[in-house]
Amino acid sequence: MATKPYRTLDAKPNAESLIKPGELVDVIEVTPLTLNDRRVYNMLLEHAWDAIDKPVTHVISKATLRGSHNSNDRVGESIERLMSAVVRVNVIWDGEPAVERVQLLGGNIETVRNDGLIEYEIPARLRKIITNSTVFARLQREVMFALTSKYALTLYEIVQKRGNMRWKSSETFTVEELRGVLGVPKGKLTSWGNLNSRAIKPAVDEVNALSDFMVEIQPKKTGRKVTHAELKWWKKDGEGEAAAGRALQFSSVGRMAKGAGAVEDIVEPSAPAVIKPRPAWLDRHGMPLATETYETAKLRFPGFDIYFVEGEWRTWMAGKEPARDLDRAYLAFFKSYAEENPL
Asked: What is the pTM of this model?
């Protein structure tokens, strides 16, 4: 007698982790999303999980989606991008592989109060995909919020979906397929060198440091051109998992400072960390920008997605010496970006 496949809906979130259907991990973003958008969407899925396959509305507080950010503007803009986002999902239709195009989020209502609520719907076609799903990623909430780039979060989700496969520990993508699943916007990072240095390598470094898997992405050439990339993953041993746990004990500031060589001799969390003195300006590296900075960006560069550009800036900044003034550095990058990418 055939064994009935385990359904994604049978998996349950817990205090440390949430569930994301595998079909929503390997999506191709027709509309580019930001790091914050992906986090918000994961929280919307988690909050709706108990009735996610039913034609009902779900209610969540804006404070839950806002997290440590002090403005609801970012939440509202993420909701609007998710409503307009169309993704391509690989599905089986009448026994044959097919591509289904769906919206990520349906209609919603947001109360005006800062401490108010958002009522939202999961689109009918997406509910059907989730109902039929048998593969999922279990995402550790702490890791999801610790990762500092969209590409790192996307790679983390990709590996969490595949990590527990018994007979598979690698997968080969064409370069275009890899760009697609990572969510690289069209026309950006078009060469392998740029894609690798600005998206892949920083993402691999973060996932290796913070998750319970090790990841490697190796280029494959056809002739003299890189045409494919092989993704490999393997479970960390006990020592590796302990190191990832220690890394999560520190803020993103501490992790970045350590990566830059400014923090040394970090010991077990039960004992105080020994930290060398470092410049005061380093303390804001990787921290949220001031609300006034976003308002300035909106006024100076009307029509641009200020949070998408922020993601591009943070990706570009990865591995470089931290700026003395992050807000000014962001606005300077935005100016160059707007000149190079006119609307």
From this structure: 0.72
